[in-house]
Amino acid sequence: MIVTVDKSAGFCWGVIRTIDIAESELESLKTGEQLYVLGDIIHNPMEIERLEKRGLKTITHAELGSAKNGKVLIRAHGEPPATFDQARAMGVELVDATCPVVWKVQERIKKFYDKGFQVVIYGKKDHAEVIGLIGQTNGEAIVIKSVEEIDRLDLTRKTVLFSQTTMDKATFHALKLEMQRKIGELVVDSFEEQAKEFHAKDTICGQVFGRDKKLREYAGQNDIMIFVAGRNSSNGKVLFHICQEANPRTYFVEVASELKPEWFEGVATVGISGATSTPQWLMESIKAQIEALTVPATAAV
Ligand code: SF4
User: Fold this and answer.
1) For position 301, what pLDDT does the model report?
2) Which residue's CA lies nearest to atom 2 of ligand 1?
């Protein structure tokens, strides 16, 4: 059995940057100081555990005020302006490790909001990145996930559609087309030249989208696929779905203990891939565990 790890899998550069910032802050801590992170630094429990062993402490927003003996890291997903205001008011020092791609989306959303646009975000309303994006609009942005939800919008207003960076392109384009169609109908119904403006800004990150094609190819080349990601990774869910489409024999695992020997019966090639938040070391360790599972069969040959 040949087991390989997908060369294009692993941390995206935004996550690498955040981890680098965390590690360099951890190295420069003085005695008695602590580095905190507001929410899980990435959606991967194994990587969180590794960094926590080095001294990183995960806190919630409610605990922000108690983080005074050190600094508080803002993770790649970013935060709404209210968090920065709150930290300032409490005298808490922040280290902003927001991914520059997310930061740029926040900035663009704010510009449209300030010009009076109805801001619509294709995403998951409770996702940390989306909370940061909504924060740019004073909490007014409307978050939708499906074409059916378009009915919640007031399309007589000038409107802009953005996307959470880790959503899928097909749905984004379906939303864009349906919104354009409905706006077109409104113009016909009202028989007037409405000054409606509609913009669709595809802000799905290239680090996610670029993996789509490579992952499909790689998944199709293997008998079975092991997809490694944290269960609450949004990007992990999207990539897992793509992997499963290309290879129906795809199994999702978060940790090596979830591997089942029966998955590998009669299998010649196993591919291992993961989300943008899946560390390379974890995929390599899962590869080693799979190879260990097959040791008796190899010895018999
Ligand atoms: S997937 Fe893209 S937007 Fe998200 S952290 Fe990585 S580089 Fe940044």
Assistant:
1) 37
2) 205
